[in-house]
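Consider the tokenized backbone below.
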């Protein structure tokens, strides 16, 4: 860094904190416009088929109802790149919950009553919604999410595995999971002649603007999308969702501003989710635990209208020494809602399977689980052969073991007891890639000694405003309160969305570049600034598009202590501890919050969260927070998050890596490994609910 203000790394308080806790922060559904109307969608009640007829007479006759939109009268859209946005364009029903109509009314209550009154007749077809490893429609795609090849082989896995002294061959199951952000997906749209303004709960309003312009045949300059405050997303708001398009269609049709906030019970069908994954992991090793053969094969599902492949075997290409390797993804297209991004896609389910298998290998070889991982550490990325820009997995494991008191652990399973409670502890590693994307930013110096940074970053609860102000203040060498940051509008300099743990690293690079150039100009000047001040605008396309000779990843280690009630089968987590190597930490307060949040989400994945496909009806049974059990305060113990000082000059000018997702990656495996240590039985299907535990007690 070039500045002298020493604000980077401090725990600066979030700039919008007071606005959020007092209700002054306005979200997408809270935009009050004169004449605003409200919309309520009508989801399909069949799992596959076609709409044959609508009866909208009763709905249209209700007081306050302004319009009932269907594919017969809705505005026509240009064909979207994402088929999930082609709403109300034809009679096809690709899955249960697909929106077939929209009611617009003066009040939210009237819109909901109108939607309840719409009657739809369908021509139904046989549906197929069950994922199984022997499904006849399974195929191997060319690539998976992120552009990775679906299949990678190195060496001769079959021969090496057959010759191994110790072999692990196990299958693991991760259920479908849903994001359920605190703020449901919502949009408020307003047309002024041919200009469209939308407040949307999105992780990136530049992308949303571009999609709306394409769908409605507009120039990008005719569309403004504002995402000033976003109440969580976890990936589900990383791409535009149907409520955005429906609100804009309804506003155009009625000539009034329209707000559409999706009912939580409908989110499971229309805003994406983590697809279920079936894993087979095989490890062949010597009796010392050193791996010679590694295979990770994944079967998952997608919808029939959009291919989305959870890249769950990709982490196995990164983690451990494996001269003979096979990683494979296979896919079945079913009559199900389209899966999409969910926090640390690929790494989260993939590392549960891999790190569980590593624990099984530790048991089979009699090698301590921490030492086993250390013995299989590597200086180069196994799949590409590139050296790591930094890889401090070993330091995370050692520091975590020290803080957790791992050396006091009795390795024998099922021996530590307190009355009816069996106690156990487990460990797992974590990794997440470093992603960087081009962004634009401007930095302005005013005559009054203040500075303004403008960039279309999005704060989804991570503290982006605050951290970017810290980057700017540090480069400029000024107090933090001298810097103001404008974010969250597509009218600002375009920037990458908040996703893939790429936001702060990418936005920060653009802010750093703009402020560095501004500081240089200021240093060259003498005398007062002009009345309009001085502004510098930059982009980082050239810097971020340059291919790195290094493999760039963050790493971490998770440690968990659990208790298992032998009477009820209930698992409670007593302690969770994570240690991370994620480059330079820019704000200690917001970083700890992100790590702890990820670990809490991983705890839910391990113990409580599950989405069950109802095969008869073709939808997910757990569709609200009463049935989809996210962890609450009573479920979460004292969670510790720590990090090591990591200096990596091969990333960006700040030396930072993304931290929003690595906290979830190894948590579920650490908890599952701790449950095995407690009860002496290996459970390979999540979540670890009492009914599954009791079978082994």
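A designed sequence for it:
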């Amino acid at each position: 860094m070039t500045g002298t203000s020493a604000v980077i790394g401090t725990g600066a308080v979030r700039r919008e904190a007071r606005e959020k806790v007092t209700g002054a922060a306005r979200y997408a559904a809270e935009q009050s416009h004169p004449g605003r109307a409200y919309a309520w969608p009508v989801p399909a009640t069949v799992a596959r088929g076609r709409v044959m007829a609508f009866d909208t007479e009763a709905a249209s006759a209700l007081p306050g109802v302004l319009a009932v939109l269907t594919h017969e009268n809705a505005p026509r859209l240009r064909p979207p790149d994402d088929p999930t946005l082609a709403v109300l364009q034809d009679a096809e029903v690709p899955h249960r919950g697909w929106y077939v109509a929209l009611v617009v009314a003066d009040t939210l209550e009237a819109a909901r009553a109108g939607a309840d009154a719409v009657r739809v007749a369908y021509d139904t077809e046989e549906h197929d919604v069950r994922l199984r490893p022997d499904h006849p429609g399974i195929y191997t795609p060319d690539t998976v999410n992120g552009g990775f090849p679906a299949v990678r082989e190195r060496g001769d896995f079959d021969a090496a595995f057959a010759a191994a002294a110790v072999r692990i061959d196990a299958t693991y199951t991760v259920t479908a999971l849903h994001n359920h952000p605190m703020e449901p997906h919502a949009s408020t749209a307003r047309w002024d002649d041919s200009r469209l303004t939308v407040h949307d709960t999105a992780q990136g309003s530049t992308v949303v603007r571009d999609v709306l312009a394409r769908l409605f045949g507009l120039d990008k300059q005719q569309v403004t999308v504002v995402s000033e405050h976003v109440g969580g997303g976890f990936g589900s708001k990383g791409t535009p969702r149907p409520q955005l398009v429906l609100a804009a269609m309804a506003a155009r049709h009625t000539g009034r501003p329209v707000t559409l906030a999706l009912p939580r019970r409908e989110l499971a069908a229309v805003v994406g989710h983590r697809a279920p994954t079936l894993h087979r992991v095989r490890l062949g090793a010597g009796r010392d635990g050193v791996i010679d053969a590694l295979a990770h094969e994944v079967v998952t599902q997608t919808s029939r209208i959009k291919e989305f492949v959870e890249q769950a075997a990709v982490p196995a290409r990164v983690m451990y020494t494996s001269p003979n390797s096979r990683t494979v993804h296979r896919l079945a297209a079913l009559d199900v809602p389209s899966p999409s991004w969910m926090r640390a896609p690929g790494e989260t389910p993939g590392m549960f399977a891999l790190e569980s298998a590593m624990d099984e290998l530790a048991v089979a070889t009699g090698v301590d689980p921490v030492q086993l991982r250390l013995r299989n550490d590597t200086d180069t990325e196994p799949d590409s052969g590139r050296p790591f820009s930094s890889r401090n997995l070993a330091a995370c494991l050692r520091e975590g073991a020290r803080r957790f008191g791992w050396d006091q652990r009795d390795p024998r399973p099922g021996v530590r007891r307190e009355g009816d409670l069996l106690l156990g502890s487990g460990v797992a590693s974590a990794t997440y890639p470093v992603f960087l994307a081009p962004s634009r930013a401007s930095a302005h110096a005013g005559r009054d000694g203040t500075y303004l940074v403008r960039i279309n970053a999005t704060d989804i609860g991570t503290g982006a405003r605050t951290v970017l102000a810290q980057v700017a203040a540090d480069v400029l060498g000024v107090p933090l309160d001298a810097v103001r940051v404008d974010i969250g509008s597509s009218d600002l300099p375009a920037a990458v969305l908040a996703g893939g743990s790429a936001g702060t690293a990418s936005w920060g690079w653009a802010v750093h570049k703009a402020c560095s150039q501004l500081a240089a100009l200021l240093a060259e000047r003498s005398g007062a600034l002009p009345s309009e001040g001085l502004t510098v605008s930059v982009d980082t396309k050239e810097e971020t598009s340059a291919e790195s000779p290094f493999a760039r990843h963050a790493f971490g280690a998770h440690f968990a202590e659990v208790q298992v009630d032998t009477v009820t089968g209930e698992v409670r987590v007593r302690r969770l501890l994570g240690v991370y190597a994620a480059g330079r930490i820019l704000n200690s307060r917001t970083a700890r919050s992100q790590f702890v949040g990820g670990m809490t989400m991983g705890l839910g994945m391990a113990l409580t969260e599950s989405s069950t496909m109802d095969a008869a009806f073709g939808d997910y049974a757990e569709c609200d927070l009463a049935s989809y059990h996210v962890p609450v305060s009573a479920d979460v113990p004292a969670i510790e998050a720590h990090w090591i000082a990591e200096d990596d000059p091969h990333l960006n000018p700040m030396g930072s890596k993304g931290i929003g997702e690595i906290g979830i990656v190894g948590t579920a495996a650490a908890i599952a490994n701790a449950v095995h240590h407690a009860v002496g039985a290996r459970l390979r299907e999540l979540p670890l609910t009492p009914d599954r535990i009791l079978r082994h007690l």
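The radius of gyration is 26 Å.
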